[in-house]
C-alpha cells in the first residue's frame, strides 16, 4: 500500500500474512505473463523506530519470509530477487541497502532459487567499487539494473559510471541475463534508447546486437 507509505513487506515484523497474500498475487501475475523472476521487496523500517533497534527482528522476519518465498517459487520454477536500495538518497527508511547485507541474508536463507538483483545506481551510491563488487557477488546475481549516477538518467548521460566498461566486464564474467534500464529518460523514451544503438555500433554490431560480419 504505497499510499500508506509501504514499499514491500518481506522484512516488516507483524505483516507476514499480508506479505504472503501479496506474494501469491505476484506469482499469479508472473505465471500469466511468463515472467520467471519476482522482486521480493524488503520494505521500510517502521515509522517511529530506530533502525539499529529493530534490525535483528527485521532480519529474522526477512529470513522467515524468504524461506517461505523460496518454497513457493520452487513449485513454479521461478526465482526470487533481493534488491538493495540506497538509503542515502532514494529511500532513507528502506531496510535492505547494500549488496553485502543482501549476500549475508541470502547465505543465511540458503536457497538456490533466491538471487541478488544488483542495481548499479544504488550500488554506486552506497559503496562504489563496482568492478570488485560485480566480481565478488557475480555467483549470486540474478538480474542487473542500470542508471547513470547521480541523475538516474540514460547510461550515456553525464555522470560517474563508465557503462561501456561495465558492459564488457559483465560479458567477461559470463553474464547472460537481462539488463534492466531502470532510469528516468531525460526526454522521450524512444529517443533516450539511442544510447543502445550507439553502443552496439561501437562494438561493430547492428540493431538487436547481431554481428555485422554475421550478416
Automatic annotation (TrEMBL):
Parts forming coiled coils: none
This protein's record includes keyword Zinc-finger: no
Location of the Xylose isomerase-like TIM barrel domain: 9-198
Pfam families with a match to the protein in the record: AP_endonuc_2 (PF01261)
The entry's keywords: Isomerase
Example of a GO MF term: hydroxypyruvate isomerase activity
GO biological-process terms attached to the record: glyoxylate metabolic process
Alphabetical list of InterPro entries matching this protein: Sugar_Epim/Isomerase, Xyl_isomerase-like_sf, Xyl_isomerase-like_TIM-brl
Domain of life (superkingdom): Eukaryota
Name of the protein in question: HYI isomerase
